[in-house]
Design a protein that fits this description.
CATH class of the domain at 6-304: Mainly Beta
Shape: globular
Helix content: 10-25%
CATH architecture of the domain at 6-304: 7 Propeller
Number of strands: 51
InterPro entries: PAN2, PAN2-PAN3_catalytic_subunit, PAN2_N, PAN2_UCH_dom, Papain-like_cys_pep_sf, Quinoprotein_ADH-like_sf, Ribonucl_H, RNaseH-like_sf
Radius of gyration: 37 Å
Largest sheet: 8 strands, mixed
Subunit structure: Forms a heterotrimer with an asymmetric homodimer of the regulatory subunit PAN3 to form the poly(A)-nuclease (PAN) deadenylation complex.
Family: Belongs to the peptidase C19 family. PAN2 subfamily.
Protein name: PAN2-PAN3 deadenylation complex catalytic subunit PAN2
Binding site for a divalent metal cation: 872, 874, 981, 1034
Structural class: alpha+beta
Amino acid sequence: MSSTYHLIPPITHERDIFPQPITSLCFDPISDTLWSGNNSGNVVAYYTAQGVRGVTFPVGGDLGIKNIIASDSNVRAAGIASNGVGAWSKGGVNKWFYRSTSAITTFSNNSSNGPVFFACTAAQELLAINSQTGDIVRKSPAISIYTHLVNAPNVLLSGSSDGYVRSHDPRTSTSTINAIQAHASGIQGLQANGNFIYTIGLGMRQGHPFPDPLVKVYDTRTMRPLPPVPFSAGPAFIDILPKRASTIVITSSEGLINVVDASNVTNSEFHQLDVPSYITSSAISPTGTYMAFGDSDGVIHLVTAADEEATLPLNGFEGPPFEWADSPDTLPAIEWTQSTPLNSIGLPYYDTQLLSSWSSRLLPAGIVSPPPPKIPQQILNTMKTTDNVAYASLPKELRGRRNVVPSRPKKSTGRFRSGRDRRSDAEPETPIFEYDPEAVPKAYRKVEIEYSKFGVEDFDFGFYNHTHYSGLETHITNSYTNAMLQIMFYTLPIRRLAKSHITTDCQREHCLFCELGFVVRMLEDARGTNCQSSNFCKVVGVLAQNHNLIELMDYGRESTDHNYGHMIQAFHRFLVDTLSLEGNTYPYNPWLVPPPPNVSYPAAAPITQVIGVDAKNVIICTNCQAVREKGNMMHVIDMIYPRKPPTNDPSQGTDFASIIRSSLLRQTTHKATCPSCNKHLATFESQRSIASKDLPPILALNASAFSEDSHKFWRDGKHQTLLKSTVELRGQINGIDDPESILYELRGMIVQVVTKEKRSHLVALVKVPEGEDDGDLDGQSSWYLFNDFAVRNISEDEALSFSANWKVPTVIYLERVDTRERLNFTALPNEIDPSILCQDTNISSNRDKNIMKHECLKPEELPTLGTLVAIDAEFVSMQQEETEYRSDGTKKVIRPARQSLARVSVLRGGGQMEGVPFIDDHIHTSELIVDYLTEFSGIKFGDLDPHLSRYTLTPLKVVYKKLRLLVDRGCIFIGHGLSKDFRIINIFVPPDQVIDTVDLYFIKSRQRRLSLRFLAWFILKENIQTETHDSIEDALTALRLYKAYHEFESEGVFDKKLDELYKEGKQFNFKPPSIPSIPGPGTLTPRASMQNPQFAVNPANLLQTAFLPGQFAMGGIPAGFYAPAPSPYPQQNWRNR
């Protein structure tokens, strides 16, 4: 038998987290999943051969898992201390559990006669259990304690502790058909295939049990022994190899694997696992392509027969998607009325005692409440007693004051634009409490977004930011990266590289460098308006999952032990390394800093040239003094602190420059075998060496202030701080200090703010380059605090000060002063290739060209400044809204529903092909869609799947780059409700480039905005959105409404028509009638004197529904739609309305 199997990288998650033996393994028959049981009583699912950790659930007890069997619908498992056997769904929810009075010793696979399996207890009971419900079908006595049960065709096989193999009738479970003693001291493994039985077990030698070196083979029908299979290493596990007749896999405890044909033992192959301990479990995949072996250290070793270049699922085929941990069902909707009982809300499930259930031990022995107030004397004077009941009339002076406490209206915590006119934003600056240095100042406290009935768009972000520098919103998963984005944005070399990268033809669908560039462009254009980094945060989550970096993912459910300081420093290193990889075009990287003379090697990645520390490690053997050098490229430096506490004496090496220098030139020792003197475990001393001139333009530091001792170095001393605005650094060459010194300036840092309750969040303190000139003019500092969307100016002393424990440094960025003018970015691309608007990008394999409605731009049609385009987008829901229902019946939105772009359509706004779409892309997404919102989006299942979609399907980044190009070229976007569309798309469009028909047809005093459907019915005399929404139809309607607006303005009747529109809208409740109707003089207005229909528009100036061939106007705005005037917008009032 030729060798067909080879080793692949093992799954080491269990070993790296908490080493414990893998006691049981099982491959899922229908999905790409490997189920494992560990020694602590937990079942863990690993998805794909890469071992992505998935669902985990306890079986019961804290001892090992005995057996796992996965079926098509559930997973059955039993543990040593579980006192029963149960079934769980693939998502980890328990379906049933049979609890036994004695321990379950083993259970079998399902019977071929029905949904029944068998289990044996330590009390020698053989149970037939319904696999769907867990009910006992039959219970019969067992001859011995069965340690193995196997359902073979028409027979139930059992292996017992006395070494016997028995066959039973599965219909009765009581009668034994045949029995034979296979081993002297017990059965260790039992398998059946066809008419053959294979057993391994223990024999006796000199009165002691020892592994039997033979695999016994028997005929199922007669229990007649057949020639055994020898295995001198001692078999510990035996498995049947599917797809091969009479082939078995024998494994020793030392990791020797023998794949052998039992009918011809010469036909075999051997493999040896690299096992430092011993094997504790084994399993074979349903197709025989994979074999898995667990060891006592928690490692799962994988062996595969697949080609090294191919990646096959564990089950051998494309199965159903993975089931992650099941989320609780949504609560039923309750129609709340005055008669609705409060108990219809129900109580949440809980498995621990409620806090309201106080025991007597928690109650004080003395008075538990204040005594009742004394009865006034004037009442006692008139009191009468009847049948031990005292009563008196209430005096006039006491009337109206009983059971009344002073109160004041509750102050709303949320600040909304809809209530801005009813409140004052002014707040007193004088503190009303005693100063506490350990209390977190108000500006540094965590800010939360409140949600009104109008959604997140109603939140007044402007109250928290009165500067020209934009903050980032927080209601997004992984938004803890906001502070890191602000640091990157205000570090000018990194900003320049990010802007350049989005102009390249990057082929990665999930690229952090591209998303960083898009955020940079958005922050540049916003100029103080709040922004969102939703696309960047989504890519962070995708890459963290792909690299199995769970510690980088933030699920928005923080606890007191959630340390964002650790998190942001790990993300900082991951981000910079990823940017270096994604931006590397070796060997075509341009030199940003002029290279030294006589350099022939290509330049490193641009990020590496800006932020990389190219040092070398000098390693010396202390025994023979042999010296060797090793290159060491680092992007992020972890700060190392002296062991002794700070003395505030720079000569002692505790000042900021000395700590940075010792971290750069880190000295370490280790033991290894010296290749020169061959001494075993020789001591080596290692130290980094770097010249001052080789220090990078940007020095990125992780503060690593994780302990109280390290944080003491940062605490302010007497009239001095550790952190300085500038720091002077010197390198070291071969142990000798470099006489040249380099001056660095502090550009920004990320600070972890820790409250007294040990909850933390991150803020950025940045020296804004644009603020250095502006600050000199108005007397303000150039330092700014970015607390997510709250931004304020602070002094330099406040930024550098660490006066209390609540302020913990995490990331520091320093800029080299002498390289600011030397960095040369001219070789980098700086403009997006406009030809992408002329390209039809599609990744769908089943696109139907007959339903394509768009026609890409021709090169001569490329838009210029002022070009009109109509746009509309459709979205799908990726996460449901999270709400909290209070005891008074009110509802509070904790986290709004998360939506993702599903379709975007952009139409020509002028020219002969006016109204013809040149972008109509459906957006591919790899995330799970929880609701397609078909009624409002028109998107159905399969429309966003590359294998099923009949439409033009495009990656999100390609579509975003097209929209980014349209914004950069100065296009004017026409649409209806564009503010929400642009927010979800995550792009900022300057207000002077947006014409929103919601604002055009709006009277501020009426406080009601009109729907596109109603406007189209009333003004254009068309019924749209009759069944579902279509983005082309909506964009076309908005464009025609815009043309109609200009027609009314040119005639000078727009204000009059707008008043009539609101009057008639009130009559129809601002909705079109249910029956198709066209507004006219007889239906929409009772005025008999009107001879013409309302809003009659010159048809020559309206957009015709038929698409006309021709060219797209390069000027953007057709002159035929306006009254004669020198300006294309003469006396327009739509922006001020």
